[in-house]
Amino acid sequence: MSGHTKNSKVISNKTSCIFCKIVRGEIPADKIYEDENCLSFLDITPINPGHTLLIPKKHYENLYDLPDETLAKLAPVIKKIAIAVKKGTHADGINIGMNNESAAGQIVTHAHFHIMPRFADDGYHLWHGKSYSKGESQKTADKIKKNL
Ligand code: AMP
Ligand code: ZN
Questions:
Q1: Is the pTM of this model over 0.85?
Q2: What is the distance between the alpha carbons of residues 119 and 60, in angstroms, rounded to a whole number?
Q3: Is pLDDT at 8 greater than 90 in this prediction?
Q4: Which of the ligands is closest to the CA of residue 22?
Q5: Does 112 participate in catalysis according to the annotation?
């Protein structure tokens, strides 16, 4: 089979994917939680100590191709880890994040959730909100609703 078929591309992505390597035990990670569907480990460059990632063990690129059943299995684990991170780090709050595509800051193309402990004095600020012109919000809502 040629190296250019769709199938072999997927295989080579999984082979080189850094998170798949962690799943296979080929590179180390500070593991937090594991079950048959998912793996959680500390982010190597935390926004604050305790910043944790949760990934499906199977390779999916991002939210768009993550099957609903897998997402449904991950959701309660996000909550479980968020509570453990909060208690374990004495965080004042928790941000949950997921970057999808490079424009949104995704660097590792294996779907993952960030569970980030926040502290009242940690100096991070969320982005400033823009404002809508008259009628723009309704048009925007309509455009989105058409795609549901
Ligand atoms: P994203 O920008 O959403 O793709 O985030 C990828 C995250 O993976 C970054 O926060 C990295 O610090 C983290 N990361 C990359 N390589 C590793 C690794 N080997 N172990 C743990 N975290 C990693
Ligand atoms: Zn992967």
A1: yes
A2: 31
A3: no
A4: 1
A5: yes
What is the tens place of the pLDDT at every residue in 42-66? Answer: 999 999 999 999 999 999 999 999 9
Query: How far is it, in rounded angstroms, from Cα 91 to Cα 101?
Result: 29
CA distance 32 to 40: 5
Pick the CATH number of 18-145 from 3.30.428.10, 3.40.190.170, 3.10.310.20, 3.30.70.100: 3.30.428.10
Number of H helices, E strands in the chain: 4, 5
Tell me which residues have their CB within 5 A of the ion that is ligand 2. Answer: 17, 19-20, 59, 110
Q: Which ligand is nearest to the CA of 54?
A: 1
